[in-house]
Design goal:
By secondary structure, the chain is α+β, with helices and mostly antiparallel strands. The chain has helices at about 5, 10, 30-40, 55, 60-65, 90-100, 110-135, 150-165, 180-195, 200, 205-215, 220-225; strands at about 20-25, 45-50, 75, 85-90. The chain contains twelve helices and four strands, in the order H-H-E-H-E-H-H-E-E-H-H-H-H-H-H-H. It has a four-stranded mixed beta sheet, with helices on one face.
Length: about 230
Amino acid sequence: MSFVTQHPINKRWPAANPDILQLYSFPTANGVKASIMLEETGLPYEAHKVTLADADVQSPEFLALNPNNKIPAIIDPNGPDGAPITLFESGAILIYLAEKTGQLLGNNATTRMHIIQWLMFQMGGVGPMFGQLGYFNKFAGAQIEDPRPRERYINEAKRLLNVLNQQLAGQDWIVGDYSIADIALAPWLGQLDFYEASDKVGITDFPNITAYVERFMARPAVQKGRITPPRD
């Protein structure tokens, strides 16, 4: 038996080919980071749909892979030094896959650190702040009469968008060439429409960003990764 077939998660999401990388995910802004990266790099992988329902993410099988009960997570049976590796946290998965393949992490140490810098900008800023904006603008928080929480996250989203719009001035991608920083950031920028917040943050005031998202969404690997694994 292989490492994958022996892992508890295989009882709920059995691998058809346990010799290749296994992705456990759902097509959210965080989840598609991993699937887009796998499509961009050409690594063979098998995708398993793990919904956001407690029945999936709180199941003992999934918690055995990610005790933080969030997608995405991976098992790579061909990890560092020939040993299997399990990983959760989308940013960590992006860095791992970039290092494994030698792709999308720059060609020198300085560029590599700048790419990681913008990846952290997404992880620590854009993701959490846009998520809160979505909560207070579209979901349960929208029922709160006090406008201050919603205004706080609208203003913070505008601030973050302005930072990105300036960074994209005169260039197609966040750090020169296309990289994992773009794979992390662009799906979250696309979330503004889903959160019904594009007008409220004045997205048309940031033309570099709107053009950037269009470039990103036009990539074949992005189009495939955004629907992997399928929702249905």
